[in-house]
Design goal:
This protein is mainly beta. The protein has two helices and 17 strands. The longest helix has 6 residues.
Length: about 280
């Protein structure tokens, strides 16, 4: 998919860069695999805001994606590739030989009419899903399970993938985009290929209205608030706040390690790369 820029008829179109979705399915999603999505607007069950700056936006239907890929040893044909408003990558509707249909995440390079297969005897081909132990070292994979049978959790957004960098007994060593190397059970399933829509990162929204269509509300900086509303608030004129950056709740916003999961600590072989300041 190519990027799409616009003639500067207005101030907003001058800077707008969007993705050209020519070639994607133009109709409605497959009805049996969709259900209503009730917008939470950032509120919890008591109606209190727990996630700020969320709300509004266009109404969306949720597409039920099969992250488990448990229909083994039978071929499926890619019927169409669709846009999904609930995620950054594209999705594909596949039809199995028994006429059963599923939505899968669409990898880069897959086309309508291609045949895909799940299971340990599937070939190493883009779109096929196999256990990690059957995939050669150095292959890019996505939708990787953390535990066998738990469904794909790793590498599910546009243009992402992880690499199998080695084998350690019953575990495969997976190198993440962050640089972290992690051990995952070799019986876990993974799908071959890099996910579609890598140009997502090059989009330029162009105007505030488009952000509102996506359900993003205006974000007010903490330093312009009063002390009662934010730890950065108060002071005469522009003020740095007199403290390190924090969230509205006082949690450090830059550099504090918040991971607290000793149970899975042993699976991390190498920590992610530190970002340069």
């Amino acid at each position: 998919m190519a990027l799409k820029s616009f003639k500067p008829y207005t101030k907003s179109t001058r800077g707008t860069i969007l993705i050209d979705r020519t070639g994607l399915w133009k109709g409605k999603p497959y009805k049996s695999l969709t259900f209503a999505k009730n917008a939470s607007k950032g509120r919890n069950n008591l109606g209190r805001i727990t996630s700020r700056n969320h709300g509004g936006g266009h109404k969306q239907k949720y597409r039920q994606i099969d992250f488990y890929r448990r229909k083994f040893d039978t071929f499926a044909e890619v019927e169409r590739i669709e846009y999904d408003p609930n995620r950054t990558c594209y999705i594909m509707l596949v039809k199995f030989e028994d006429n059963q249909k599923f939505y899968y995440l669409a990898p880069q390079g897959i086309k309508v009419g291609d045949k895909i297969k799940n299971g340990s005897n599937a070939e190493i081909k883009v779109g096929n899903c196999l256990p990690l132990q059957n995939i050669p070292v150095g292959i890019d994979v996505h939708n990787v399970e953390l535990q066998p049978g738990a469904g794909g959790k790793i590498a599910r957004s546009a243009g992402t993938s992880v690499t199998i960098s080695g084998i350690d007994g019953n575990y495969s060593l997976i190198k993440m985009t962050s640089g972290e190397v992690r051990k995952i059970d070799s019986r876990s399933m993974a799908t071959i290929g890099v996910l579609s829509n890598p140009d997502k990162k090059n989009i330029k929204i162009g105007k505030a209205g488009r952000s509102r269509w996506l359900g993003r509300r205006p974000h007010t900086r903490g330093v312009v608030m009063n002390p009662v509303d934010h730890p950065h608030g108060g002071g005469e004129g522009k003020s740095a706040g007199g403290r390190h950056p924090v969230s509205p709740q006082g949690q450090s916003a830059k550099g504090l390690k918040t991971r607290n999961n000793k149970r899975t600590e042993k699976f991390i072989v190498r920590r992610r790369k530190k970002k340069r300041a």
